[in-house]
Amino acid sequence: MTIAVLSAIARPILEPRLPDWIEPRWFATTEELMEIADQAEIGWFDLYKKEDMAEAARRAVRLKWLNSIYAGLDHMPLALLHERGVVVTNGAGINAITIAEYVLMGMLTIAKGYREVVHAQDRHEWLMDSPGKRELFGSKALLLGMGAIGSLIAERLAPFGVEVTKVRRTPGPDSLAPDQWRAKLGEFDWVILAVPATPETDGMIGAAELAAMKSDAVLVNIARGAVVDQDALVAALKANRIHAAFLDVTTPEPLPADHELWSLPNAHVTMHLSGRAQDKMFVRSVDRFLVNLERYRKGEPLEPVMDLTLGY
Predict the structure, then answer these.
(1) Which CATH number covers residue 152?
(2) Structural domain harbouring 250
(3) 221-254 tens-digit pLDDT
(4) 311 pLDDT above the threshold of 90
(5) Catalytic site residue 135?
(6) Among the listed ranges 96-105, 139-148, 166-175, 287-296, which one has the minimum average pLDDT value?
(7) Which regions of the chain does DSSP assign to beta strands (E)?
(8) Do residues 90 and 100 share a domain?
């Protein structure tokens, strides 16, 4: 029997489908996980508090495979897991559909000034003109990050007539290399961040990049708050050096109630809800986990496996 330490959140849909060679040990609280983490050969340690997940992973000295619903696992002790030879499968692509839809929603919201329409309804005021005059059609977007989420964003923007320039490690006719995009920032109406959180992407949008953007450009960040120098972004928004920012992620999270991003009229803070705006996350995750269990049993490669040296 193979011991798998698993979250009780997934138990109702996972337990009836587990193969007979798995001995599940369920945890419903952080304390329960800490008590049994060291028993796991297979672990699914997802918790809301990322530091507790990391501690569970450190305690799991017998662990061979760690699974997670989270796409970004930069909070985990990746170097230690690599040293121990643990295979890590993450949630890359699980929430890609809903996050891509969220990006499209954010772009349309800003283009059409829809937040002001909602405020007018709250005031019972009949607007005589649209507060937003933009069309997505014919606009240009720079898309940084071409994983599962970035690919679906590009796919969904195409029918709207948005010209998307992608940033790839290996550039092609419609894409730029990682060392080329900064010189072209002034050409784009939308700058969309869908990159993984790594030391390489930390602070990749700072004061210089914001200054290079068009004055009517919009920054869309569904990556990680740390990808953007938030102080520089606040300064740029207050000075109207860019038109707006659609921020599903911030630093820190939750954003303190007194943070000025909340009250800036050109900042749209959506509280890291993009991946939660759907009800299929656990169903998809369980389906993927069960397929990987069969592969694990047969000694076949699991999917998607993180490169623990790169961090994604």
Answers:
(1) 3.40.50.720
(2) 96-276
(3) 999 999 999 999 999 999 999 999 999 999 999 9
(4) no
(5) no
(6) 166-175
(7) 2-7, 22-27, 42-44, 65-67, 87-89, 140-144, 163-167, 175-176, 190-193, 218-221, 244-247, 267-269
(8) no
Rounded-to-integer distance, Cα 228 and Cα 221, Å: 8
> 224, 243, 268, 288: which one is catalytic?
224
Q: Looking at 58, 272, 284, 295, which residue is catalytic?
A: 272
Catalytic residue status for 268:
no
Nearest alpha-carbon partner for 236 in 262, 205, 257: 205
Q: How far apart are CA 202 and CA 247, in angstroms?
A: 16
User: Is 283 domain-assigned?
Assistant: yes
The residue among 196 and 264 whose pLDDT is bigger is: 264
Domain count, the chain: 2
Task: Identify whether 310 is part of a domain.
Answer: no
Same domain, 79 and 133: no
**Mean pLDDT computed over 47-60:** 96
User: Is 95 in contact with 274 (CB distance < 8 Å)?
Assistant: yes
pTM: 0.87
Determine which helix (DSSP H) or strand (DSSP E) holds 188, and give its type and residue range: none
Report how far apart, in Å, the C-alpha atoms of 147 and of each of 210, 277, 283, 309 are.
Answer: 24, 20, 21, 17
Return the pLDDT at 233: 98
Instruction: Note if 272 is an active site residue.
Output: yes
The verdict on 105 and 232 lying in the same domain is: yes
CB–CB of 112/132 below 8 Å? yes
Annotated catalytic residue within 253, 260, 294, 303: 253
